[in-house]
Amino acid sequence: MRQEAILIRKIKAGDQDALPELYNLYRPLINHVKQQYYVRYYDEQDWNQEALIVCHEAALKYQEGKGTFGSYYKVRLLNRVRSVLRYHMAYRRRAATQAISLETAITNGLKPVRRPAVLVSCVPLSESVEEAISNLSLLEIWTLLIILGVYRQEEVINYLKVSQLTLVRARSRLVRKMRASLLK
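Above: the chain's sequence. Below: its structure in token form.
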């Protein structure tokens, strides 16, 4: 019986000492896969850990008589590496993979680009504000005066004889209307 078959049976039986031995038998295969693929931020320990995990899973699921363990392990290891690559190359992580450090940018003579977070509309601001205010109710105008610091909240509550909850709701409506009017 071959040495790998004995080690696989020991791993299936729960012998944890057999796993490093089986792993070391396939060290050349692991090194070859590491040379073929580049995963950003993966160091030697990360590669070894992935390969060891895949080796353990492959040993537990391997069925004798269905090909060699070496070919089975190679396919599983390549599939794991491709899954890791797909994860790292996902669209939502693309910015992180294309990013460079600020120090690298400075040494290469690149300067950061500053862009406004919100695009300013082409309509003059005074017209936009006038239009936004014309759509407000009297309570929402009083709420705007509180936000601007012209009046204190307690003064408006006493003057209009409304509750604090009414002002909170008016503020919510005010913010929604202003955003809709000014940021369209």
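DSSP finds eleven helices and no strands in the chain.
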